Amino acid sequence: MTRPVTREDIETSIELCRRHLTGLQTGRGNFRYEYDWERELYSEDDNAVRQAGALWGLAKLHRLRPDEVLMNACLKGLSFYAECSGTTAAGGRYSTYPGDPHGFTGSTALVALALIELLRGPHAGDSADRRRWRGLLDEYLRFLLAAQRPDGRWPARYDAGTGALSSDAPSPYSDGEVLLALALAARYLEYPGLGRAIARGTAGAYRHYVLLALRRSLRSRATNGYYQWGTMAMYEIIGAGWAEGEDYRGIVAYLGDWMCGFRRLGERKTNPAAVLEGLIHAWDLAAATGDADRQRGYGNVIRACLERMLALQVGHPRADDFVRRAPDSAPALGGCQHWPDKPLLRIDFTQHQLHACLLVADLFTLDEAKGPHRKIV
Question: Rounded to an integer, what distance in angstroms lies between the CA atom of residue 134 and that of residue 189?
């Protein structure tokens, strides 16, 4: 019988993720995207949104566990995006990525999320740093607010040269990322004037990615893509105590039931870290409201997922037999696979695992008998 996951296991994973991501950062500030540990080769592929997500992961880690290495990594990343960005005539700022003619709304939202983490937490800079970060965040949020569509959602892309918005269909991923950035900025940094955009965005996402999407198919990819980002955004709205937050408790529970029941999250063989980002928040809401059945059910799924997740990290004591074949040194050390039989270590796999572990350390009760670890709502 496999021993239960412990807090030591979670802390080990966090440190391994930290070492892996900081080790992949280039001198320019972005990251080496993917490493095949079996062939010992870096991939030629890249992804602008996942690059920004890696920066956000390190910024959140720095807020919770600040140190000089993480701060330097965050500063290098912000410098990269200050260089790789454009501005609109209205004063909005949007992220770009070298060689890509398109910009991505999710990337802009994730850079904004990284700035929010730095502004929320301790840092090595002075008041001038904080003013500069706040000024950049103002510009990114201005762009996102101006980009919102009449149906409450956001264009997934824009022209990298001009910032002109694309007519492409919105993305459930980027819509959730934008909503999380707006909710965090409003809740923790007391940004004014975001309430209407948050309400319209959450209502539009619910209509398109839950009601309509699940009506078309109970296996909706759109719902699956929105799940963790949307749940995290709704969690912050509920936690802030805004009136509309009460409407979202039932949605979070419904989506959690769908993910654990119909989608059978606890039985997946792939790395479940990204989905855990949503489910851990759903578990905390169930615990805070005394919903013992959901707390127990979600908790069992989370524990099963943690076992699978840690088994897919190079260098972790719980790594499975295939992963143990990887070199126990950089650049493989600490990287996370998504598939159990594919030796690909991608920055977003590791970033999601880092964030999931931070949420476990912050919110989740590994030993049910000891009661809740901590509540923030």
Answer: 10
Label residue 240 exposed, middle or buried (CB < 10 Å: 0-12, 13-18, 19+).
middle
Q: What is the DSSP letter of 209?
A: I
**Residue of 191, 176, 229 whose CA lies nearest to 352:** 229
- Contact status, residue 16 vs residue 2, Cβ threshold 8 Å: no
- Domain coordinates of the chain in residue numbers? 7-370
Contact 272/289 with Cβ under 8 angstroms? no
Which residue, chain included where needed, has tokens 């004037």?
193
pLDDT tens-place string over residues 139-172 = 999 999 999 999 999 999 999 999 999 998 999 9
The model's pLDDT over 337-350, given as tens digits with 9 standing for 90+, comes to: 999 999 999 999 99
Structure tokens at 172: 């459930």
Chain-centre distance for alpha carbon 61: 12
The per-residue b/e assignment along 299-309, b for 16 or more CB within 10 angstroms, e otherwise, is: bebbbbbbbbb
CATH number of 7-370: 1.50.10.10
Dihedral, 197, 203, 208, 211 alpha carbons, nearest 10: 170
Calpha distance 128→368 (Å, rounded): 45
Strand-pairing partners, residue 104, are: 157
In sequence order, the 6+-apart residues with CB closer than 8 A to the CB of 262 are 218, 219
Residue 90 is given by DSSP the state T
* Of residues 102, 82, 78, 202, the one with CA closest to residue 151: 202
